[in-house]
Amino acid sequence: MKFLDEYRDSEKAKKLIEAIHRRVSKNWNIMEICGGQTHSILKYGIDELLPKEINLIHGPGCPVCVTPIEKIDKAIEIASNQNVIFCSYGDMLRVPGSHTDLLKIKAQGFDVRIVYSPVDAVNIAKKNPEKEIVFFAVGFETTAPPNALAIFMAHQQGLINFTELVSHVCVPPAIKAILDSINNRVQGLLAAGHVCTVMGFKEYEDIAKRYKIPVVVTGFEPLDILQGIYMCILQLENDINIVENQYSRAVKREGNVKAREIMNEVFEICDRKWRGIGEIKDSGFKIKVKYEEYDAEIKFGLEDYSIEESKECKSGLILQGLIKPVDCSVFGNKCTPEHPLGATMVSSEGACSAYYLYKEKKLQ
After folding, report:
1. Quick check: 320 and 178 in contact, CB under 8 A?
2. Which of 271, 291, 313, 349 shows its CA 20 to 30 Å from the CA of 2?
C-alpha cells in the first residue's frame, strides 16, 4: 500500500491545509475538471477542510455522464439482437437511455458482457466468429488509445465480426465552452491528470493564456488535490495565469507520444453532443474512413436522431459547474442510484453519485 499511503499522509495533508488557509485572502472559484477528483474531494472531506473563501466547482470530467441518450439508445438497439455479443465497461450498464438501460436488456436474456479492456472484446470476437461483437467505446482521451488499438488489432487480424460503438469526447473544447459562457464562474482549473498523461498539457497553455486563468494539472489522491489547490491559490493570489504540473510523476508536457500515434491512426476529430450540455464543436473522436468497417453505427445502419432529455434532471447544469447536486430538487428522492434520472447519479465518476455516497447521510 506504500504508493497509496504516501499520497494519503494525514500530517502532510494537515500542513497543506494550513498553508492554503494562510495564503487565501479573497473568494475564489476553482473547478476540478475530473469526476474522479470530485469523488476524492467528497470521500476525504477536502471541501470541508478548506477555507470558506474557496468554492470548489465540479466540472464535466465524467465520460459516462456526458454520453448522450441517443448513443445509449443505439447501444440498447444493438444489444437487443440475438446475433450480437455486446461488450461494455460495467459503469455504462446502469446509465439510463430514453426508456431502459443495458442492465435491463441483459436481464431479458440478451448477451451483454462486462469487459475490462477492449482487447477482451477482440478476443471474444476471435472465439465467436458466428457472432457480431460490439464494444461500447466510451471515454475521454484517456481511453481512446486502447480503443483505437483494439480496432487496429482487429484490422491486422482480419476480424470481420468486431465493431465499436464510439462515443469519445475531448476535454479542452468543453472547458473552453464553459469559460466562454456568460454564466461562467470559474477562476482557476485543476486539470485532469489522467487525460494529460496521454495528451500532455500544451493545449492548456493556450487556455491559460487566452482566458487569463491558472491551470494546474492535478492527480487524484488527497495530497495531489490539496497541493493542486494550493498551487492554484498561489497563482490566483499573485495574479499569475500559467500551466503548472502537480502530477509530474505521471504527466509530461508532450504526453504519451506512442498512445497519441495509435489514437490518431484510427480516430479523427469531430463535433460531439454532450449529454446535458449539447453539441460542442471539435470535441469528440470518430472512426476514420480507413477503418469504417469497424464502426458499429455504419454496420448496423443506425441513423442520427435527437431525443429530448429529462426536464427534471439538472445534470447538465451540474456538469457545467453552475449548480451542485444538492441544489437539484429531485436529488436523493426521485433520483437515486436505484432509480436514476441521469448518468451523474450512477457513474463512478458522477458528481451526484459522489454527493449521494458521501454527503447524503449528513444532509438528512
Report:
1. yes
2. 349
Neighbouring residues of 7: CB distance < 8 A, sequence distance ≥ 6: 219, 221, 222, 223, 224
Sign of torsion over alpha carbons 76, 78, 83, 84: negative
In the block, residue with C-alpha cell 464494444: 135
Say whether pTM exceeds 0.85.
Answer: yes
Nearest to 178 by CA among 98, 283, 257, 99: 283
Closest CA to 243 of 264, 218, 269, 273: 218
Three cell numbers written together for 314: 439538472
Do β-strands 54-61 and 28-34 pair in parallel, antiparallel, or remain unpaired? parallel
Architecture in CATH for domain 25-364: 3-Layer(aba) Sandwich (3.40)
pLDDT in tens, 133-178: 999 999 999 999 999 999 999 999 999 999 999 999 999 999 999 9
The CA-based angle 231-33-171, given to 5 degrees, is 120
42: phi then psi, degrees, rounded to nearest 5 = -75, -40
CB count within 10 Å of CB 247 equals 24
Q: Nearest Cα to 272, choosing from 260, 282, 262, 257?
A: 282
